[in-house]
Each structure stands twice: as structure tokens, then as C-alpha cells.
Amino acid sequence: MFNDMKVRKSSTPEEVKKRKKSVLLCLGEDKKNIILEEAKEILVGDVGQTVHDPHATFVKMLPDKDCHYALYDTTYESKKEDLVFTFWAPESASLKSKMIYASSKDAIKKKLTGIKHELQANCYKEVKKLGGSAIISLEGKPL
Questions:
Q1: Which one, out of 1, 2, 6, 109, has a CA that is 20 to 30 A from the CA of 45?
Q2: Burial 35-70 (b: 16+ CB within 10 A, else e)
Q3: Sign of CA dihedral 55, 58, 64, 68
Q4: Model pTM score
Q5: What are phi and psi of 126, to 5 degrees?
Q6: pLDDT tens-digit series, residues 27-71
């Protein structure tokens, strides 16, 4: 899954379209395994077709009342791309959920090499920040 997000110089246009733009990860039923959440991803090929604002779509995918991890492949106006790891812990999530996700965060980050920025967000407006600094536009759209 993580390799499906990485940029490769030798990618064909079809491979690029199948690359994941964003994914949500959650704890499995047993609360011991981190899994890819079903149907919670954006493919690069979807952008401009079924997804017109990938960042807004990504933010809407985040649940209101539960913690999650997320990976988002950010594209800057300079065409530079960075992978952003987000630990989503909304205020309305249970304390137990926040503690379990917080204690598992380092384990998943060790598996995901190539992350350029990390973000911990507790509300939707915090998702508009990268590495602690506010950004004014993302994916060519003002925030």
C-alpha cells in the first residue's frame, strides 16, 4: 500500500493514475493490527475526474468521532510532492481510542519510510497545516 503512493521516475501514465493520492488507516477489530480502511482512498487518476478538490475530499473522509492515521501525497505549486503522515484524533473520540492510537503511532511510522511531514490534528482546520506551519494553497487551491 505504501509503495503504491511513492513517486517513481519510470512510472507509465497508467501506473501514475493507479497511484494512491491518500489513504486512511485504522486499527482492526482486535485493536492490534493497523489496516487500510476500505473505500477510504483517493487515486491520482481520480483527481480531475471524480475528485475535483483532493484535499477537501481527504478532509471529508476523516471520521468525526474516531481516531485514524492517514497518508496524503501533497503536490505543491512547484510540482514537488511530499508524503504527509497524519494522526487524526478528534476531540469527540474516546480517551481509550486516543491512547491506543497514540501508542501505536511510532510503530506504523517506522514501517512507512519516506514521510516528509507529520501532523497531529484534533479538528478539521488543523488538517490544513503541514509540519506545524500553515499553508495558504494546496493542490492549486487556496485554503
A1: 109
A2: eeeeebbbbbbbbeeebeebbebbbebbeeebbbbb
A3: negative
A4: 0.80
A5: -70, -20
A6: 988 888 899 898 888 888 888 888 888 888 888 999 999 999 999
